[in-house]
Amino acid sequence: MQFFIYRLLFVSVVFPKGVRSQVQTHQTVMAALGEEAHLNCLLTEPKEVLQVMWHKILPDFEDKNVGTYNKFGQRVDPDFRDKVKFKVTELQNSSIVISSVTEHDEGCYLCLFITYPEGAFKGRTCLQVCELHEPILHVRGSNSSEESLVSCSVTARPAPTVTLTVTQQHLYFSHYSTVTVTNANNTLTVTKTAVLSGLHGDGTQVGCAVRVPSGPQKEVFMNITEVKPKSADGFDKESENSNKRGRWILLVVVALGWSIIVVSLVTTTQSTTEDTNNKDTTYINRTPSKEDTNSSKVQEELQYLHLQ
Ligand SMILES: *[C@@H]1O[C@H](CO)[C@@H](O)[C@H](O)[C@H]1NC(C)=O
Ligand SMILES: *[C@@H]1O[C@H](CO)[C@@H](O)[C@H](O)[C@H]1NC(C)=O
Ligand SMILES: *[C@@H]1O[C@H](CO)[C@@H](O)[C@H](O)[C@H]1NC(C)=O
Ligand SMILES: *[C@@H]1O[C@H](CO)[C@@H](O)[C@H](O)[C@H]1NC(C)=O
Fold it and tell me: Is residue 143 within 6 Å of ligand 2 at its C-beta?
């Protein structure tokens, strides 16, 4: 499984209103699944800070202590010891690193600058974990040699946007359709399909760009040459070869068919000769008509062969 390169996104910098507006932090931090997330807080006014604390806000519970430090040392709560490390431990400037984030690390975190005599100054920053897999791009010919069906599929969380691109200006996409499937683990698989028109035998490069909102982006490209409908002769070397092979097989089958007919003709002629001795002529008349049907079948087969 390959995930995109870690990226932090500072969606917006918040200055909470009111008296406690001195802590600067990021409202939302976006981190890719499996990568690390950096949460930063800054006390913008000089204060006498005794201690800095980080809490995780839990729904329906008291906030959970993540870690604390002061000028004498630092301590990370045992529940977070494998997960969280202090990166900056200044009394006015604090940051933690959450390693290999999963959806369990999502949520909001509080940084508290405990000052004397004013008390705590708080900052609140929320971590959002996103997941973005490699997009898969498919191109196949449609009925017309000037059109191709392009589709791009990606699995992500939250809902990704999928954009199809083409390098040449005279080529264009139409008949867009999008299918979204929700997976068991809350990721979404989005498949976008469109018809690429304007191909005149010249090659081009199609691309697919995927991204999660205010998150990272991934892009794949594919070079396409003239795409002919699959039924056309000589679509590519391989099918040409298999066409040839198919013809040889048909020829052998037809030859075998003919020899069987010849053999059966000989046998029936023999048997009819015997029959004429014992029975009436109606049977003799019937036999050639049977042969006719056989040979017309062979004719049909031969025609089919020419059509191939
Ligand atoms: C906070 O500390 C980090 C790491 O030492 C530093 O890069 C950053 O510039 C500091 N921010 C301020 C506003 O001092
Ligand atoms: C392609 O041809 C088939 C059969 O002739 C037809 O059913 C189908 O709708 C055509 N597709 C397009 C995209 O024109
Ligand atoms: C979630 O489900 C999708 C589709 O089944 C899968 O591709 C993806 O790897 C899963 N993500 C995680 C984190 O297991
Ligand atoms: C596609 O073509 C371009 C230019 O012709 C080339 O630079 C690029 O490497 C090709 N990409 C692939 C995937 O073949």
Answer: yes
